[in-house]
Sequence to fold (156 residues):
Amino acid sequence: MEEIKDDVKDQSLVHDFNTSNSKFSFSPKIALIFVVVVLLGLGSGYVLSTRLSINGKTANIGGNLNSSSISKGTTVGSNDTNTFKDTAQGILKQGGIDGEGAFHLERPGGSSQNVYLTSSTVDMTKFVDKKIKVWGQTQKAQHAGWLMDVGRVEVL
Fold:
C-alpha cells in the first residue's frame, strides 16, 4: 500500500515541458534559406506580372508603353481568348455614354455602331485616335448598345 502512495506523490498535475528534446530546431541557416526563397518568389512574381512578351515584342501592360513607340502590329494585353472572346475594331476615342465606358470605338454606320469600352488590364489612353482591334468580354449595360471590358489591343 505504501508503494502506491509513493507513486501517487510523484505524479503531479503540472508538468514542465522540456524543449531541449525537440526534434526540430530552427537554425539561422534554415531562416536564411526561407528568406532567400521568399525574396526570389516575390521578385520573379513582380517581373512576370509587369512584363509580357507577345509576338516577339516585349510590352509593359501597366502603361509604361509610350504613344510614340506604338506602331502598326503592336499587341498589348492578355492572350486569354476564353475570357476575352468578343472582338471589335475601329478608331479609339475618349468618352463613354451616360457614365458607361471611358472610351469608345468609332465604327462605320454612325454613333449607333459605337462600342463603349472599359479596361483594367490595358492602358487605353495610349491608343486614342488609332485604328485598333480589341478583344474583350461583353458587359451588361444600361445605356450603351455594346459595352466591353477590354483585355487585349492590337494596332491596325
Summary: The chain has a mean pLDDT of 79. The domain at 66-155 is CATH 2.40.50 (OB fold (Dihydrolipoamide Acetyltransferase, E2P)). Helices lie at 2-10, 28-50.
